[in-house]
Write a structure and sequence with these properties.
Helix content of chain A: under 10%
Shape of chain A: globular
Radius of gyration of chain B: 13 Å
Number of helices of chain B: 0
Largest interface: A-B, 19 and 20 residues
Strand content of chain A: over 45%
Order of helices and strands of chain B: EEEEEEEEEEE
Oligomer: heterodimer
Strand content of chain B: over 45%
Distance between the termini of chain B: 37 Å
Number of strands of chain B: 11
Number of strands of chain A: 11
Shape of chain B: globular
Largest sheet of chain A: 6 strands, mixed
Structural class of chain A: mainly beta
Chain lengths: 109, 114
Amino acid sequence: GQNIDQPTEMTATEGAIVQINCTYQTSGFNGLFWYQQHAGEAPTFLSYNVLDGLEEKGRFSSFLSRSKGYSYLLLKELQMKDSASYLCAVMDSNYQLIWGAGTKLIIKP
Amino acid sequence: GAVVSQHPSRVICKSGTSVKIECRSLDFQATTMFWYRQFPKKSLMLMATSNEGSKATYEQGVEKDKFLINHASLTLSTLTVTSAHPEDSSFYICSARIQDTEAFFGQGTRLTVV
């Protein structure tokens, strides 16, 4: 079966760095996405990785290792507004998105 | 990025009535749109894939007669919840993709059936 695993909840301090991991087992691979979702709102796109390596975009970076079925989202200089759920999703061989359950990130002052 | 507009954002309806939710791609043509349902503190659950000009493809366990999907044009897909019941209360989200790249999401619709 297809499976995406990410931690349920993480806590970090304002100004610090946090890494949210995602491991996956899917039927084929056509890219991995990270989305941010604030409570009661729709997800917003953060990053897309299809090749191995690190993609940096401002305070957010995303890493992918296809051989390990592993990705992480790195958030630097954390701000209170970064408190949200972070969803990992993999596009399988049929170009369908398989979603993780999301990681709730709590930022403390 | 591309914009997907979903309307209404919130709706309260009486049990037994039908509710229509619209999803529009404002600045691109979407041959495929997706409808998701999200329960509190749960991940997105794909309900169906909507293809312009053809019937929607429903996921296992989703009642096609209850959740009617119409993709009448390249910029509009609608989801109609027919004969709504309180257990249909949920957050419904649509998304559209440009070819096989990132998905853009509508704002979501919070449906409450009383």
